[in-house]
Amino acid sequence: QVQLVESGGGLVQAGGSLRLSCVASERTFSSYAMGWFRQAPGKERQFVAAIRWSRGTPYYADSVKGRFTISRDNAKNTMYLQMNSLKPEDTAVYYCTAQLLGTERSIATTGGGSWGQGTQVTVSS
Nearest to residue 81, comparing CAs of 51, 55, 46, 110? Predict the structure, then answer.
């Protein structure tokens, strides 16, 4: 399984921005669909955003559409989540996930076979 390490979380005021990163150990990173999920205290893990291994169109949850942008740099084995206009309800642990040869929709539905340890994002009002 590919090893995933997230970073970039922190405390930010409402309306602020953060950029999360997810670095993958796999040299064939470009063959994986990648996604971000989040889990708030007492709630189930929910899909945030996904991007295919090559081409395709990024896919977002309605709650973050227009505010968050997912991207990837295959040369650096890294995926990003730019989060703008943050709201208190965005507070959660954010996890990255990877799915070999997956699509945006498949990873959004099931998550990937590999998960990172998570990074905490806290948005104060």
Answer: 51
Q: How far apart are CA 45 and CA 95, in angstroms?
A: 9
Going residue by residue through the chain, which has 125 residues, state the pLDDT in tens, using 9 for 90 and above: 889 999 999 999 999 999 999 999 977 777 889 999 999 999 999 999 999 877 778 999 999 999 999 999 888 999 999 999 999 999 999 999 999 888 999 999 999 999 999 999 999 99
Residue with tokens 């507070």: 91
Q: How far apart are CA 121 and CA 58, in angstroms?
A: 22
Largest Cα separation within the chain, whole Å, is: 41
At 86, list the tokens: 């943050």
Angle value at C-alpha 47, between 123 and 58, nearest 5 degrees: 100
Q: Which residue type does 97 have?
A: T
Burial of 117 (0-12, 13-18, 19+ CB in 10 A): exposed
Cα dihedral angle (74, 75, 77, 81), rounded to 10 degrees? -60
